[in-house]
């Protein structure tokens, strides 16, 4: 009897386990089938949100329109709650209205961005995640910039490009594959990005930027705009619109026909005179919009190594490129491109934007073209000046390398009072060549009147030599002078001033400057504070 009871117990247990397994399997298959259905609907389709917030799907094959509604909690099932709530844009990713401040509380998201969080800190990474960035132009530069913005955790991206992926663009595109050839670049990035960081709200516009689309593309107060366009007319119009709207913008200059990644710089548009594209853009902005500068750009100091290739038609003969233009004003001739350079341009742009969004202060390398001999001369002039002014150079506590740091890194070869920033580019380099590390000159008569001691021949000779020294050097040069005359000449107590500016500085004190010129005082002390921190003084 006991044996039969055991048998029935085993049979019952097996039946119960079988029933539970069957139910679990059915639920699993249902969820899998639902996801397959949604994936089948979305694959090969353009996703467009209508004004009611529904998700409209256009099939490329049948050209029929279907409308689906997905719930936030179970994307694979039909429901009443709509997933998206914006209108007129192509996008996927996080639902409209999602509080991005809570995004980093998600365990998967926080783990994916853990290295960024460790680098920036949670609060700064939160700023990045809450940011909205527009990227216009999604070729070699733009695709890499957008890719790293996504991987850095930017919460919302608008991707704009009218062009399609081609076979020849695969040597420099960030994510495109052969299967993507022929589809719009914007949709290509959207597809791949949704698999990398699905929580990001990604909007894709297959659209050419121009005056008619400005409001549509630049509205919504983006935190940053990336200009990765290679057409001058469109680039100039976009930059002018961003300046007019007060939007932060970073522009990419020419990346084609170059090979040296060590010469890539970020600087103001005024300083990018070597680059032919930036030179043309600067001219057009000044001529058409009265914009002199104030726009950061990524450019290369390297001169292009090759020129545009000749355009050959179907017959193999050279023909007029304008006869084959799909869009008026856009080039059809080929610029030889080493794929690594536009990729690095894009990475530089993404790094610049992410650090700006996070509030991390990064000092870009200044565009100053001096060799070590120039800095040796500046150091020697400083020593001579201290000898003439103070009778000894014992308080000069900087060497040649530190002089280079003061001139190049801290002050970018300019006077501390040069607020116009017009002395840039090659002009700046010439003025740096004239830079002197000397003090002000005062008249011999004033020195005699102000001094109550008995003068020695040695003292008089030093003063005469000092006057002669400054007369020979001229009054147009920049000089570096002690900010606080009571302290020695160190990296955190030297400021560059023009000769006449140094005279005025000699007659005042730091406390007086703080009282009469608080903005100038704050600017100088912040720069010198940077030197103090970097040298651990």
TrEMBL record:
Location of the THIF-type NAD/FAD binding fold domain: 114-371
Keywords attached to this entry: ATP-binding, Ligase, Membrane, Mitochondrion, Mitochondrion outer membrane, Nucleotide-binding, Transmembrane, Transmembrane helix
Similarity field: Belongs to the HesA/MoeB/ThiF family.
Pfam families linked to this entry: ThiF
Entries under Gene3D superfamilies matching the protein: NAD(P)-binding Rossmann-like Domain
InterPro entries, per database record: ThiF/MoeB/HesA, ThiF_NAD_FAD-bd, Ubiquitin-activating_enz
GO molecular function terms attached to this record: ATP binding; tRNA threonylcarbamoyladenosine dehydratase; ubiquitin-like modifier activating enzyme activity
Keyword Mitochondrion part of the UniProt annotation: yes
Biological process terms in GO annotation: cyclic threonylcarbamoyladenosine biosynthetic process
Compartment(s) where it occurs, according to its Swiss-Prot or TrEMBL record: Mitochondrion membrane; Mitochondrion outer membrane
Name of the encoding gene: LOC105032655
Species of provenance: Elaeis guineensis var. tenera
GO cellular component, one term: plastid
Membrane topology designation: Multi-pass membrane protein
Keyword Coiled coil attributed: no
Taxonomic lineage: Eukaryota, Viridiplantae, Streptophyta, Embryophyta, Tracheophyta
SUPFAM superfamilies membership: Activating enzymes of the ubiquitin-like proteins
Stated name of the protein: tRNA threonylcarbamoyladenosine dehydratase 2 isoform X1
Annotated function: Catalyzes the ATP-dependent dehydration of threonylcarbamoyladenosine at position 37 (t(6)A37) to form cyclic t(6)A37 (ct(6)A37) in tRNAs that read codons beginning with adenine.
Coiled-coil intervals, chain numbering: none
């Amino acid at each position: 009897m006991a044996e039969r009871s055991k048998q029935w117990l085993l049979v019952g247990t097996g039946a119960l386990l079988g029933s539970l397994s069957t139910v679990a399997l059915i639920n699993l298959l249902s969820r899998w089938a639902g996801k397959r259905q949604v994936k089948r609907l979305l694959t090969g389709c353009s996703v467009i949100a209508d004004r009611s917030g529904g998700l409209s799907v256009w099939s490329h094959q049948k050209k029929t329109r279907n409308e689906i509604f997905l719930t936030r909690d179970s994307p694979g099932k039909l429901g009443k709650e709509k997933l998206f709530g914006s209108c007129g844009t192509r996008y996927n990713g996080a639902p409209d209205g999602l509080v991005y401040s809570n995004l980093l509380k998600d365990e998967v998201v926080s783990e994916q961005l853990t290295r960024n969080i460790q680098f920036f800190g949670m609060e700064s990474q939160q700023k990045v995640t809450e940011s909205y960035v527009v990227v216009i132009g999604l070729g070699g530069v733009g695709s890499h910039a957008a890719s790293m913005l996504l991987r850095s955790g930017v919460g919302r991206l608008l991707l704009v490009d009218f062009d399609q992926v081609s076979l020849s663009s695969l040597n420099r595109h960030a994510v495109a594959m052969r299967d993507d050839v022929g589809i719009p670049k914007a949709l290509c990035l959207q597809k791949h990005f949704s698999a990398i960081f699905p929580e990001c709200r990604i909007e894709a516009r297959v659209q050419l930027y121009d005056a008619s689309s400005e409001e549509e593309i630049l509205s919504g107060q983006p935190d940053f705009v990336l200009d990765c366009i290679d057409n001058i007319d469109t680039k100039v119009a976009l930059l002018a619109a961003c300046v007019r709207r007060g939007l932060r913008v970073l522009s990419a200059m020419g990346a084609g026909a170059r090979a040296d990644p060590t010469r890539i710089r970020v600087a103001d548009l005024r300083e990018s005179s070597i680059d032919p594209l930036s030179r043309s853009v600067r001219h057009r902005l000044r001529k058409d919009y009265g914009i002199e500068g104030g726009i950061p750009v990524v450019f290369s100091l390297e001169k292009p190594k090759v020129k545009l290739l000749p355009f050959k038609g179907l017959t193999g003969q050279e023909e007029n490129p304008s006869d084959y233009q799909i869009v008026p004003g856009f080039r059809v001739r080929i610029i030889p491109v080493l794929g690594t350079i536009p990729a690095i341009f894009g990475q530089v742009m993404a790094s610049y934007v992410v650090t700006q969004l996070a509030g991390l202060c990064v000092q870009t390398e200044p565009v100053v073209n001096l060799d070590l001999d120039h800095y040796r001369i500046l150091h020697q002039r400083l020593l001579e000046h201290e000898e003439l002014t103070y009778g000894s150079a014992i308080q000069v506590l900087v060497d040649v390398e530190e002089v280079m740091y003061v001139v190049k890194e801290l002050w970018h070869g300019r006077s501390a009072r040069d607020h116009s920033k017009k002395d840039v580019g090659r002009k700046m380099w010439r003025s740096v060549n004239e830079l002197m590390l000397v003090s002000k000159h005062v008249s011999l008569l004033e020195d005699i009147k102000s001094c109550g001691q008995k003068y020695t021949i040695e003292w008089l000779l030093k003063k005469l030599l000092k006057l002669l020294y400054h007369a020979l050097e001229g009054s147009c040069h920049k000089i570096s002078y002690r900010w606080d005359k009571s302290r020695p000449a160190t990296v955190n107590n030297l400021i560059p001033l023009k000769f006449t500016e140094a005279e005025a500085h000699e007659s005042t004190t730091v406390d007086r400057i703080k009282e009469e010129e608080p903005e100038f005082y704050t600017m100088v002390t912040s720069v010198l504070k940077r030197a103090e921190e970097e040298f651990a003084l």
